[in-house]
Amino acid sequence: MNKELYAFITGKHHHIWRKDYCGPDAAAWKKAGLTPRERMADRFVKLCEQEDPCLLPGQKLAFIRTVKNLPDVLTEEEWTDIRAKHHIHELGYLSNLSPDYATVMGTGLLKAKETADPCTAKEIDALIGLAARYREAALKAGDTAMADVLAHVPAYGARTFREALQMLRILHWSVWAEGEYHNTLGRFDLYMKPYFERDIQAGTLTREEAYELICDFFLDCNIDSDLYPGIQQGDNGQSMMLGGIDKDGNSVYSDLSVLCLRASGEIRLIDPKINLRVSKDTPLEVFKEGSRLTAAGLGFPQYSNDDIVIPGLEKLGYAHEDAVNYAVAACWEFIIPRTGADIANIGALSFPKVIDKAFKKITFCETMEDFWAEVEAVIKAELDEMTAAIGDVWFIPAPFMDLLADSEDISRGGRYNNFGFHGTGVACAADALAAVEKYLFTEKLRTAEEYLAAVENDYREDTELLSLLRNRAPKMGQNTGAPEKWAKKLLHTFASLLEGRKNCRGGCYRAGTGTAMYYLWHSDELGASPDGRRKGEPLGTNYSASLFSKLDGPVSIVDSFTSPDLTETVNGGPLTLEFQQKMFDAPDGVDKVAHLVRYFIRKGGHQLQLNAVSRDTLLDAQEHPEKYPHLIVRVWGWSAYFVELDKCYQDQVLRRQEYVL
């Protein structure tokens, strides 16, 4: 790793070159009569013209952002009019797509321009012009190697591993510069592997030189990441998928994959977020390599199980050649590079809210079957309301992103236009159902009226029941059978009640197990829950146990959370486990975690993410943030610097249980 470059980036010295955008804004574009597509192109051109080519110390791959802000292309009045007619997802700009870098990387922008529309052609010319100015800056600095690379890319197709990395850097930079966000890096080792292997076999690149280039590319991902929007700093979507199989069933995992994992572990920064595709046939050494990265304390790799995800996607109608090519969105949602225009996070079903609504009718239920019927009815009503609220989705066109997609206008959709719903707080809901069944209908420790009153009063007047529910009631993660039974029913009902529904773009709805930021948002909407969760307590992280559950260890948790048929909920949402950092100090620490991950995969888990944390360190970081500028934690589907998080997210991380093996 280039330590000088690392120090320059982490010290944020490049921020001195940043400046404000200066040029036309939405009002000017409206006055000129430009369409949204024309505005996107004009803004991109103006940005490229204003960018100052800046080379960082020892940098081998060019391009950074110096213009730090972009004006919206639509006025508030225009947005109001559009929202009155259409459903606008998040910011209204495309996000959470996996662009097809490989095709343009192979042909070059001039070839792509031959079939481009006028707006895209303008952007291509502007980008080639900016690259030419970077080449001039490299020549002026005496860096002939970089100048030679920029003489060929991005205008022409990449020929070498370094050119391919430079081309990728420019293409990835460009979709952010155009205004799209949560732009992923997709299956990096799949599309970069031919360049890597060709150079290695030709003897024009050594393994060590390739490693240094990868380190440079990873460092580059952290140059502009603070300019990329998200819920919190770090939530920027720069996810990278490694491993898995190709369309012919061959393993993609290679020496290039290993170098990426090791580069991430050496650099120890939050980007790119590493995801690793594995299966029951994956060699143990791959899990060990991933566990070595976990030990670095970055919160990745996140694992995805091909044995579950690929069949699950095929159940939803994805062609086999596309299902085997899956990547992940900003967090964990499964998306398809090039052909997919799925909106994988368009809504969220709160299972605790479902239980809350049904439980208000508990006094009318004579049996557990009656109560479950109420739960099913609420799930259906919630899904009816959620799907009815999403009509005529509209996005701002994206001329440059169209280059990287199998669609003439990706803002209007692609081959796949499916919408994903998170299913939040599964454990809280399953635990509540198990508790109601046990203590109300089986053991009859409380009447329905007493139980309802206790919950509605936040257990203040029934502390005995509160203690029972929190300390003795069966919980997801203990693998006792009761909560797992209800988790299966909840997730199956969720998926089956979405089956057959079509969205406004002709796609289906995908059920998932992710909780994301809803572990705070959805808990804030609720009072206490029948599982013993009190008002104000957050939900468990993602598809994980409740924070107050008394659990023995990770093996029973894996057994518990792999019991449902997770091929039905492949919108994504990982089981999240926190390990004590000191566990990795033991000689067999990494090996134990590797075996656990393989066990999870073979048990039928769909996704897994692990944190290596120290509670004492986190507490000290809250008190003395200046001492821990680069302390990293996994927040939900992404990692961040702990001290940059809002305190509510810091506190949720601190409440998670730490395990040892």
Give the gist of this structure.
The protein is α/β, with parallel strands linked by helices and 661 residues long.
Please provide a written account of the structure:
By secondary structure, this protein is an alpha/beta fold. The protein has a domain at 1-85 and 109-156. 46% of the residues lie in helices and 9% in strands. It has 27 helices and 14 strands. The strands form four sheets. Strands 1-2-3-4-11-10-14 form a seven-stranded mixed beta sheet. It has a three-stranded parallel beta sheet with strand order 7-8-9. Strands 5-6 form a two-stranded antiparallel sheet. α9 runs parallel beside α11 (207-220) and α12 packs parallel to α13. The mean pLDDT is 94.
Largest sheet: 7 strands, mixed
Query: Which descriptor suits the 3D outline?
Result: globular
Query: How do the strands line up in the largest sheet?
Result: 1-2-3-4-11-10-14
How many individual β-strands?
Answer: 14
Indicate the structural class: alpha/beta
| Spatial extent as radius of gyration | 25 Å
Arithmetic mean of pLDDT? 94
Question: What is the percent of helical residues?
Answer: 40-55%
Specify the number of helices.
27
Portion in beta strands? 5-15%
List keywords for this structure.
3-stranded parallel beta sheet, 7-stranded mixed beta sheet, alpha/beta, 9% strand, 27 helices
Per-chain topology:
Layout: H1 3-10, H2 26-31, H3 36-50, H4 76-85, H5 101-107, H6 109-113, H7 118-140, H8 144-152, H9 161-178, E1 186-187, H10 188-202, H11 207-220, E2 239-243, H12 255-267, E3 273-278, H13 284-295, E4 302-305, H14 306-315, H15 320-323, E5 327-328, E6 334-335, E7 343-350, H16 351-359, H17 368-388, H18 399-403, E8 419-424, H19 426-442, H20 448-456, H21 463-471, H22 482-498, E9 509-511, H23 518-524, H24 554-561, E10 575-580, H25 589-602, E11 607-613, H26 615-623, E12 632-634, E13 639-641, H27 647-655, E14 658-659
Parallel strand pairs: 1-2, 2-3, 3-4, 7-8, 8-9, 10-11, 10-14
Antiparallel strand pairs: 4-11, 5-6, 12-13
